[in-house]
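Re: zinc ion structure - here you go.
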Amino acid sequence: MKRHLLTALLVLTMTQVAHADLKGYVLSSAIWNSTTIPVCWENLSDSTSAQRTVVRNAIKQTWETYSGLNFTGWNQCSSSSNGIRIGVKDTGPHTMGLGNNIAGMTNGMVLNATYKNWSKSCQGREDWCSTRIAVHEFGHALGFAHEQNRGDTPAWCLPCSTDADCSSSEYCDNGTCNQGSDGDTYVGSWDTESVMNYCNPSWNGDGELSFTDIETVQRFYGEAKVRLKNVSENQCIYGSSDSLDATHWGCWNDPAFVYKMKSFGKNKVQLVEETTGKCLYINSAGNVGHWECWNDPYMYFAIDKTDDGYQRLRGIETGRCLYTPDGNGGKVKSWACWNDPGFKFDLNY
Ligand SMILES: [Zn+2]
């Protein structure tokens, strides 16, 4: 009897060790306990306003759009600033840990703006680099480890036999060069497309969240709720229970303006009006309305980024973009997408 108990204890202990040793990509203990996370810059004089806007927009168009997260502040840090504190230095961008382990830490995140010393290949395309780097580093700041640190990383990704096969900041583990802290929780299967994966064929996933990145951030920071606020008209799209129209009105704090953004893949969503549960669509004639949500190709939208931090709502099947003409009570319309300010939406909520 005693021996059985001992065996049981041993098995239990070994299981716990095995779990602790898992190479996940989410460090669940480091998840912030609020979805509102303050951000500040250690020294505004270390970067230009335009350089900071590139970072702000990159985060707004990714982690913030696709989850319940709100990043607030973005001003100069004070000595007591909590949250994410960003130092700007011409060195390799990094975070000093995962998730809330960097809360309130001076230079808890370091970003580059000029690339005169580190990664000179970014010169002449600084914003392009800064966008991709910001999305990756904020992934760390949210508690997400490198995808290639997972134990189920395939043999083709950063293969190694010993540490000597890896770069100086990496170590060889389980046949793969790992870098930085490990997570403890897997979400989905190993994801080539993750912005957290060094083996992504596009560097940092081109700064576009993969389907699994979206699943991950939503699991830990809540579903994406947005208002579809047209920037040039200052109008919000809404649906009502007595009509299947898609109408718009001056934005205010009305629950009818709230849409849930349900993801079905990388840059593929349905826009579900929260109070009616109906889905927005653009049909083959270009007409816009709401209908019961189902697997209809006309109900899927791509959320395309604009250079100035806004987004266009493009019907995937039609290639048409939404706009909101004719003032309060006007019908939402669609037109072939192009670089027109009338198509710009702000998806903040
Ligand atoms: Zn990293």
